[in-house]
């Protein structure tokens, strides 16, 4: 570094810039703090200052002001990077101690500089000695004040209280790391917690049908809780040592990962799409003869969700088949409702079909939620048992064979309304 800076020491422009900086100790300190924050290291800036001092490019007092700024700037990085209150208290306490030290030391540099120069063997060593002495003095001065400082920091950054019933965070301790089965059991409890929150959201959707306005906000808050739980659970599962898992534990881990992802998607559709469409439906109204029985469908989804949560524990093949059959039931219901809508448009082409469209959108979204529930719990079990086909497509025809087109049949003359 010294050899690299040597040619710049003789440049008139560099000396002029350093002369301007050296004229104001406060600007010197802030400039070094900015450099240390950008470099994420006070040591790098202190070494640079030592090299500048060794080349006589900055006077000793200016070099010491730069050292103070380097110590202050490096304390900003952990404060910016930390989000948890406990971690921010440590970072903020470090910054406050260093800031107070700079306030005390900066006006005294005129008296401190001759003492350090007399002890040190040269400018570069003087910079290093001052850096060490400054941090040692801060430690000695702050130790007796740790109690009051900790109390102040707790008042400034209190703990964020979790909402009632919120699940505790997952942490991979040593016992769980050595016994993956325990870790997977703990993860299963949190996955079931996600299912419980989704069931509450389905009940709030029923309340929203009757005009319960706050239900929509509760659904959005619950969706955010599901999202947070799912992200934490996925990180927890990803930290498990893959080499320590046997085949059954690997399948269990994959199933839990799929469950959390699918439940998260279901919550997203419910909070963002279904809640919005229910609000539109209530404002526009729906034809009583053709309207969906949304309360019944939401109750059916709740039952399917409870079955999915049970499958996460029991992994029963017959129950998985019953849940998978719900996918076909919702698909047939959607086909029937679409056919009824087309028939209604043929009979009443001039009438407004906004209510019909909203019901179709709601049915599509409820079908999507059911698809996520089936994929979350039934499909992993059926896939492991060999009962789930890789594709619903027919096998490809031999090369050169003429393609067979499906027969075209005319639509029925009249299709009744959906049940």
3D architecture notes:
The chain has helices spanning 2-9, 12-22, 25-39, 42-54, 60-74, 76-81, 85-105, 109-119, 123-142, 146-156, 174-178, 180-209, 214-238, 247-284, 294-314, 317-347, 354-385. Helix 3 packs across helix 4. Helices cover 75% and strands 0% of the residues. It is mainly α and 419 residues long. The radius of gyration is 34 Å and the shape is elongated. It is built from 17 helices and no strands. It folds into 2 domains: 2-156, no CATH class; 175-385, Phosphate transport system protein phou homolog 2, domain 2 (Methane Monooxygenase Hydroxylase, Chain G, domain 1, Up-down Bundle).
Nutshell version of this structure?
This protein is mainly α and 419 residues long. It has helices at residues 2-9, 12-22, 25-39, 42-54, 60-74, 76-81, 85-105, 109-119, 123-142, 146-156, 174-178, 180-209, 214-238, 247-284, 294-314, 317-347, 354-385.
Topology:
Elements: H1 2-9, H2 12-22, H3 25-39, H4 42-54, H5 60-74, H6 76-81, H7 85-105, H8 109-119, H9 123-142, H10 146-156, H11 174-178, H12 180-209, H13 214-238, H14 247-284, H15 294-314, H16 317-347, H17 354-385
The CATH class of the largest domain is identified as Mainly Alpha
What CATH architecture label of the largest domain applies? Up-down Bundle
CATH superfamily of the largest domain: Phosphate transport system protein phou homolog 2, domain 2
* Distance N to C terminus: 82 Å
Q: Assign the CATH topology of the largest domain.
A: Methane Monooxygenase Hydroxylase, Chain G, domain 1
**Mind telling me the C-alpha Rg?**
34 Å
Q: Supply the helix-strand structural class.
A: mainly alpha
Overall number of structural domains: 2
- Specify the number of helices: 17
Order of helices and strands: HHHHHHHHHHHHHHHHH
Task: Please give the share of residues in helix.
Answer: over 70%
Largest sheet: none
- How many E-type strands? 0
The geometry reads as elongated
**Uncertain residue segments:** 162-167, 405-419
Average pLDDT value? 80
Q: Assembly state here?
A: single chain
Strand portion: under 5%
Membrane topology: Multi-pass membrane protein
Transmembrane segments: 26-51, 63-80, 92-112, 132-153
Protein name: Na/Pi cotransporter family protein
Keywords: Cell membrane, Membrane, Transmembrane, Transmembrane helix
């Amino acid at each position: 570094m010294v050899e690299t800076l040597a040619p710049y020491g003789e440049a008139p422009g560099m000396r002029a810039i350093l002369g301007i900086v050296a004229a104001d100790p406060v600007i010197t300190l802030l400039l070094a703090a900015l450099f240390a924050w950008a470099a994420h290291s006070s040591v790098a800036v202190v070494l640079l200052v030592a090299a500048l001092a060794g080349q006589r490019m900055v006077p000793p007092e200016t070099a010491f002001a730069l050292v103070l700024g380097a110590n202050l700037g490096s304390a900003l990085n952990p404060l910016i990077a930390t989000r948890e209150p406990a971690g921010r208290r440590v970072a903020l306490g470090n910054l406050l101690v260093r800031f107070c030290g700079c306030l005390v030391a900066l006006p005294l540099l005129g008296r401190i500089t001759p003492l350090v120069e007399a002890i040190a063997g040269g400018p570069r060593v003087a910079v290093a000695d001052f850096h060490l002495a400054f941090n040692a003095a801060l430690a000695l001065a702050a130790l007796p004040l740790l109690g009051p400082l900790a109390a102040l920091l707790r008042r400034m950054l209190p703990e964020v209280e979790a909402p009632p019933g919120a699940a505790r965070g997952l942490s991979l301790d040593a016992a769980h790391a050595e016994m993956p089965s325990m870790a997977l059991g703990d993860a299963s409890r949190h996955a079931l917690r996600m299912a419980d929150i989704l069931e509450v959201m389905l009940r709030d959707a029923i309340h929203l049908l009757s005009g319960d306005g706050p239900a929509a906000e509760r659904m959005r808050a619950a969706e955010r809780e599901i999202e947070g739980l799912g992200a934490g659970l996925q990180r927890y599962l990803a930290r498990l040592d893959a080499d320590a898992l046997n085949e059954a534990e690997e399948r269990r881990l994959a199933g839990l990962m799929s469950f959390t992802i699918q439940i998260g998607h279901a919550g997203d559709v419910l909070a963002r799409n279904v809640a919005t469409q229910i609000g539109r439906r209530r404002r526009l109204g729906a034809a009583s003869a053709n309207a969906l029985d949304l309360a019944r469908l939401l109750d059916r989804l709740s039952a399917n969700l409870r079955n999915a949560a049970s499958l996460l524990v029991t992994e029963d093949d017959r129950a998985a088949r019953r849940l998978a059959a719900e996918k076909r039931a919702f698909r047939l219901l959607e086909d029937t409702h679409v056919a009824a809508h087309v028939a209604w448009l043929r009979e009443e082409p001039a009438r407004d079909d906004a209510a019909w469209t909203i019901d179709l959108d709601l049915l599509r979204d409820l079908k999507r939620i059911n698809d996520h529930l089936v994929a979350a719990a039934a499909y992993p079990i059926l896939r492991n048992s060999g009962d789930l086909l890789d594709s619903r497509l027919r096998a490809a025809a031999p090369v050169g064979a003429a393609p067979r087109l499906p027969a075209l049949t005319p639509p029925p003359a009249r299709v009744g309304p959906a049940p």
